[in-house]
C-alpha cells in the first residue's frame, strides 16, 4: 500500500511489470505515465481509484490496496 498522507494509491509492483504502458493508455485521469520505461503515478490527486489500470495490466503488476464490496 502506498500512503501519501490522506490518499492510498494503487500499488505498482515493478518486479512483475514489463513496462508495456497499457496502464498509461487505460488510465482515464492520466495519473500514470511512463518514466524511463516504468509506470509512475505522477498525479496522485487525479487518480479516481477506478481500477482500470489494475484490470488492464497483463502481468498483474498493479493492485488496489483494498476491495470494494457492495452488500
Molecular structure report:
With 71 residues, the protein is an alpha+beta fold. It has a single domain (2-54), classed as Alpha-Beta Plaits. It is built from 2 helices and 6 strands; from the N terminus they run βββαββαβ. The strands form 3 sheets. It has a two-stranded antiparallel sheet. The longest helix has 5 residues, at 22-26. The N and C termini lie far apart (24 Å).
Topology:
Elements: E1 2-3, E2 8-9, E3 11-12, H1 22-26, E4 32-35, E5 38-41, H2 52-56, E6 62-63
How many domains?
Answer: 1
Q: Count of helical segments?
A: 2
Largest sheet features: 2 strands, antiparallel
Low-confidence stretches: none
- What structural class should be given to the helix and strand makeup? alpha+beta
Which key features would you list for this structure?
alpha+beta, two-stranded antiparallel ribbon, two-stranded antiparallel sheet, Alpha-Beta Plaits, globular, 71 residues, single chain
What would a concise description of this structure say?
The chain has 71 residues and is an alpha+beta fold.
